[in-house]
């Protein structure tokens, strides 16, 4: 059986997304049933950027499924510098059953997946963050039930998280309004492809430069940092460009009463989101963080379980 990777939500069909969620439901309902699901399997975690949620949830997830993980910090593998990505991929494939990579350029994930003989999971690249978007949609599904006809407003930078949310919303028939400053829109090809999928699923994706327009009457408001990891030098410039895109109490008033507040974390409180809003009663940011664990366990079982009898 050929190996399967998780590189982008764009590579998943709506059915595959639903299957991941159904398995996540089972994992949440009875984690003990799965305590040997990945017995004897090992996951390598190659991180070229810092992480709390992604690293810990994959590490703990493997442990809870009866397997284990090996964390490789930026200095250890030194991917592409100490040795080529292809040599590292082929070597690791002789030791481990799956690889998570958090990196800068998305092409690094594609190259690792090309040469690895074991499944590769994108743990965040500059282009996408699929595990985040899957956990986010799973969280909305838990809180709101049926997604068809509901709308998520993403306010802020058209970054990796935004790209993945576009793909994910399209696959679960959730409408998505994206508001960014001019010049900070999501990837054009992602938007067009997601819009076509959404159309087929009866959902609508819209782009605007007005946060007020994006959040009017919506069920969910989502934001992320204005400067992502690797963009620290642009922070001051971005702060100016995004100053009218803060998720605050005034903006929240325009959404549906009780609208969910979401953020992938880490958050810069007082910048993209105010303290009162992120700590408010409608904030589900820690449910999102928790669901990273459950959804990724489902992904790990799907990709690493019962491959080649190993
Ligand atoms: N949301 C997320 O991926 O968090 P970390 O950067 O801490 O892994
Ligand atoms: N857009 C952010 C997400 C962090 C989880 C970044 O790439 O830094």
Topology:
Elements: H1 14-29, E1 42-47, H2 53-64, E2 68-72, H3 74-77, H4 85-93, E3 98-102, H5 106-115, E4 120-122, H6 130-144, E5 151-155, H7 160-171, E6 175-179, H8 188-201, E7 205-208, H9 211-215, E8 220-223, H10 235-241, H11 249-252, E9 260-263, H12 275-278, H13 285-304
Parallel strand pairs: 1-2, 1-3, 3-4, 5-6, 5-8, 6-7, 8-9
Helix pairs in contact: 1-13, 2-13, 4-5, 6-7, 6-13, 7-8
The structure holds phosphoric acid mono(formamide)ester and norvaline (NVA).
Norvaline (NVA) is lined by residues 124, 159-161, 224-225, 228-229, 264.
Concise account of the structure shown:
With 310 residues, this protein is of the alpha/beta class.
Key phrases:
310 residues; alpha/beta; Rossmann fold; 2 domains; 5-stranded parallel beta sheet; 4-stranded parallel beta sheet; 13 helices; 43% helix; 13% strand; globular; binds phosphoric acid mono(formamide)ester; binds norvaline
Low-confidence stretches: none
| Strand order in the sheet with the most strands | 7-6-5-8-9
CATH A-level architecture of the largest domain: 3-Layer(aba) Sandwich
Per CATH, the superfamily of the largest domain is: Aspartate/ornithine carbamoyltransferase
- Biggest beta sheet summary: 5 strands, parallel
Beta-sheet strand percentage?
Answer: 5-15%
Cα Rg? 19 Å
Number of helices: 13
Succession of helices and strands: HEHEHHEHEHEHEHEHEHHEHH
| Secondary structure: number of strands | 9
Q: Percent helix among the residues? A: 40-55%
CATH topology of the largest domain: Rossmann fold
> How many domains make up the 3D coordinates?
2
Shape: globular
* Mean pLDDT reading: 96
């Amino acid at each position: 059986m050929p190996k399967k990777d998780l590189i982008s939500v764009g590579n998943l069909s709506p059915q595959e997304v639903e299957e991941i969620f159904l398995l996540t439901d089972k994992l949440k309902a009875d984690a003990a049933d799965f305590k040997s699901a990945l017995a004897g399997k090992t996951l390598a975690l190659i991180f070229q950027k810092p992480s709390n949620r992604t690293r810990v949830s994959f590490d703990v997830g493997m442990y809870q499924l009866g397997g284990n993980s090996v964390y490789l910090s930026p200095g250890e593998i030194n991917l592409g510098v100490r040795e080529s990505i292809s040599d590292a991929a082929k070597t690791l494939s002789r030791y481990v059953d799956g690889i998570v990579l958090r990196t800068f350029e998305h092409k690094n994930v594609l190259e690792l997946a090309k040469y690895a003989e074991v499944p590769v999971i994108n743990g965040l690249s500059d282009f996408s963050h699929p595990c985040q978007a899957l956990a986010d949609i799973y969280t909305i599904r838990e809180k709101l039930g049926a997604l068809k006809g509901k709308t998520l407003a993403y306010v802020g930078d058209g970054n990796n998280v935004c790209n993945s949310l576009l793909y994910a919303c399209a696959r679960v028939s959730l409408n998505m309004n994206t508001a960014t400053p001019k010049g900070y829109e999501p990837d054009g090809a992602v938007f067009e492809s997601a819009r076509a999928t959404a159309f087929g699923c009866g959902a609508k994706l819209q782009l605007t430069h007005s946060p007020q327009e994006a959040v009017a009457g919506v069920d969910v408001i989502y934001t992320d940092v204005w400067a992502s990891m690797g963009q620290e030098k642009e922070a001051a410039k971005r702060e100016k460009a995004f100053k009218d895109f803060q998720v605050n109490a005034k903006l929240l008033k325009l959404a549906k009463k009780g609208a969910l507040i979401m953020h992938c974390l880490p958050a810069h409180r007082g910048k993209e989101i105010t303290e009162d809003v992120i700590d408010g009663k409608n904030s589900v940011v820690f449910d999102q963080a928790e669901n990273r664990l459950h959804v990724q366990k489902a992904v790990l079982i799907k990709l690493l379980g019962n491959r080649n009898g190993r």
